[in-house]
Design a protein that fits this description.
Length: 119
């Protein structure tokens, strides 16, 4: 499966962005999907995940209540709605896909989209 992330940009603190990740290739609905991010000088970290059917989600503590992951299997797309953005959310955001049979494991990665939050 190939993944293409988009929607990043420059936003002021308190603002919102919606990231999209379009998938092509094998059956999108068979994959659990995740969003990760990597800030400058830091390791990549988990942000959010959604299972293959869309009825189970999980978030890292720092984004709970501010970010929402969702998916549209008919459009082969996963989204990350980011509200109340903070400067510490600045990072390159990556989407990832993994088999629904192996939760938490991701085999395919998108190219990343840069989110910059100004104070």
């Amino acid at each position: 499966v190939q993944l293409q992330a988009s929607g990043g940009g420059l936003v002021q603190a308190g603002g919102s962005l919606r990231l999209s990740c379009a998938a092509s290739g094998r059956t999108f609905s068979s994959y659990n999907m995740g969003w990760f991010r990597q800030a400058p000088g830091k390791e990549r970290e988990f942000v959010a995940t959604i299972n293959w059917s869309g009825d189970s989600t999980s978030y890292t503590d720092s984004v709970k209540g501010r970010f929402t992951i969702s998916r549209d299997n008919a459009k082969n797309t996963v989204y990350l709605q980011m509200n109340s953005l903070k400067p510490e959310d600045t990072a390159v955001y990556y989407c990832a896909a993994g088999s629904r049979l192996r939760p938490g494991k991701y085999d395919y990665w998108g190219q990343g989209t840069l989110v910059t939050v100004s104070s």
